[in-house]
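Molecular record:
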Amino acid sequence: MNMQKYRYEEIAAEMEANILEGRLKPGHKLPSVRALKLKYNIGLSTVQNAYEYLMIKGLVASIPKSGYYVSGPKREDREGQKSLKGPARIVVHDAIFKNNLSVITAHADPQKKHSITEFNVAAPGEFFIPQKLLLRTMQQVIREKGAGLLRYYPSNGSEFLKEHLARRATTYHSRFRAEELIITDGAIQAFYIALASVTAPGDVIAIESPCIFSMLEVVKNLRLKVIEIPVHEGSGFDVAFLKRAAEQAMLKAIVLTPNFHNPTGALLADADKKELLTIAQSRGIPIIENDVFGDLNFSGTRPLNIQSMDNSGLVMTFSSFSKTLAPGIRLGWLSPGRFFKQAEQLKFSLGSTVSPIYQESIAKLLASSSYDRHVRKFRMQLAAQAYHTINLISEFFPGSTRISQPKGGYSIWLKMEKKVNMKLFYKHCEQNGIRFTPGSAFSFSNVFEQHFRIVFASKYTPQREEMLKLAGKIASDCTL
């Protein structure tokens, strides 16, 4: 399986670094296509792909009959990166939501239920689901496996699937063997098994903040206490804050999404991953890393997992295919490290196995490299979606709106000024058939009342664009 970058990606990455580090200023005219062709000894189409890639990211603009120019990130977005913070003090919380999240949809007009424009569903939209590929692969599996698919499958999952998961993981330096994997009914079951394997009711864990509500629900159901660790849009999980928390409390686990955090899209640097691992190893604290968006990098190579740096077995990694293929494919996996026996017993006690058709179909996709081809295309589509969404928000939402700059995944985290009445904003959006996920759903505390998440994993239509523009107008109208 070839996970290397294409030549156009390498050239684009070099130019992107020059822009982001200030060596190429906004307005600077860039070399012509022919000039770059001669410089790098490559084809014209490769140069054009590199420029198109940078245009997708909003870093380069094309002016007809003039050429390519640096557009650069917007000033207000760079300034806003510092304000996207979570809890500032080390506080141990009970895992209880302070808000009733059901009120979010209480204002929806029943007449508009069929025409809701959803920016809150963290799953690939219909246009991005490789339907023909999935259905064709499933049909092949049914023909090849026949009645064997109707029998019981191993509780831990298909050996064929686990072999190909382990083989693929070596391309991004992860260290686990097929026999160390557990196939689960989606990512959340994998997270539940991992967390329940190392905690008991009343234990204290460190968890990223903001954090997706489905993971918070697991924490609540396990009756744990939490210290919320801030995630910064520019740098990701706050390792220094975690270090202080570990010094002040007996942590039983550290939970985070180092690669393309949901909802900010932040990527934790390798140096920070190593520092976090050192802290955890020195105190014997298990790390549970969520890698469901790890394949969806907008540029460069796939980022490393923390587990790839670990030789102690303290790191547990989980992921799934519902974010990269289709939401209906509830197939996840867990690499539980030294906690395999506990995790295996928990999985067995749950009494559920993933559909054999799904397991064998995913294995076949991995074996043929079809999955990697799909992901390569999908992440480019998501990059275009992300920067188009950011441009729409920048133009139509209040100028003071703070916008995260995702490096992968498919969500953007927004913060509105305090003078924007968020309850009124959600109410009017619902009445107009527009739905977002409020920031209050991402924490056990009340620190994200002015935030909300936008998911850009559905293809933009003229109607979808108009709905986002309308949401911006509603935000302006709800400003006190």
Residues 148-372 form a domain with the Aspartate Aminotransferase; domain 2 fold (CATH 3.40.640.10). The CA atoms of residues 137 and 364 lie 7 Å apart. Confidence is low (pLDDT under 50) at residues 72-85, 102-110.
